[in-house]
Amino acid sequence: MHGRATALGAGTVLNALATATGSAFAIDAETTASVELDDSGEVRGSIAEAPDADTRLIERCVELAVEAFGDGEGGTVETESDLPMAAGLKSSSAAANATVLATLSALGRSVGPGPDADISRLDACRMGVRAAREVGVTATGAFDDASASMIGGVVVTDNTEDELIVRDEVDWDVLVWTPPERAYSADADVSRCENVAPMADLVADLALEGRYAEAMTVNGLAFSAALDFPTDPAVEAMPIADGVSLSGTGPSVVAVGDRADLERVKELWDAREGETRLTTTRTDGARIQ
């Protein structure tokens, strides 16, 4: 019983830690999960790029999918990814989504919008969010990040109720700068983020008006201050890019706009320690292979 699926990374428009309203957009960076189910009753996970990394999230995703649609199967799950871990680019959400879809595929279950589908993509996404909460890798459940990864485009969500408020499509080039340090979402100082709730409300208003690039710039300044990240990379990009923000709980910074402008920003960010990459937005979302 084999399944394989791919899900997308994402960048941040609005960090949900302040008010539980979040917004994110899918980017062209992928995580793939391969699942082999057997009758062992035990799930064993591995991460190709990090053999010693914590695998509880992907193991729990398999378990939840089996609980819902299987018959006590165990097996193995392995993920491989373009996304650096703990960098604010939604690697956990992508791994969870890919794992849930791969497990459903291994179980012979259909995922989609049609009336004959066994489960919708958003409900499959919620399964991964539940797993993330249960193993403690996220403070909010990250339904905003997970839904962007699963269905593509840009989303605004209520992370308390795991409900999609808005889905839209954007066509941006995207520049990502990732410094060497790492930041784990579960370790974020939630109380400091709650202090910037008035700014988060403003960001939400801008996002709901479709002013996503402006929204993310305001978000980036507010949450860089709350989470104690430097604003210099964003300030460098502001005169050039359409929008720029700290992504997630950092440390990556993401800028959006057209390719020529972002290549100018890349020249500035390349002088910094770390890695830069040019990519694009995606509207297709996760898929079973």
Structural account:
With 289 residues, this protein is of the alpha+beta class. It folds into 2 domains: 2-170, Ribosomal Protein S5, domain 2, CATH 3.30.230; 173-280, Alpha-Beta Plaits (2-Layer Sandwich), CATH 3.30.70. 36% of the residues lie in helices and 27% in strands. The protein is built from 9 helices and 11 strands. It has helices spanning 56-69, 91-106, 121-135, 143-151, 190-194, 197-208, 212-227, 232-237, 259-269; strands at 2-14, 21-38, 43-47, 74-81, 154-158, 163-168, 173-178, 243-246, 253-257, 275-280, 287-288. The strands form 2 sheets. Strands 1, 2, 3, 4, 5, 6 and 11 form a 7-stranded mixed β-sheet that branches. Helix 1 (56-69) packs across helix 3, helix 2 crosses helix 3 and helix 6 (197-208) packs antiparallel against helix 7. The radius of gyration is 18 Å and the shape is globular. The two termini are 14 Å apart.
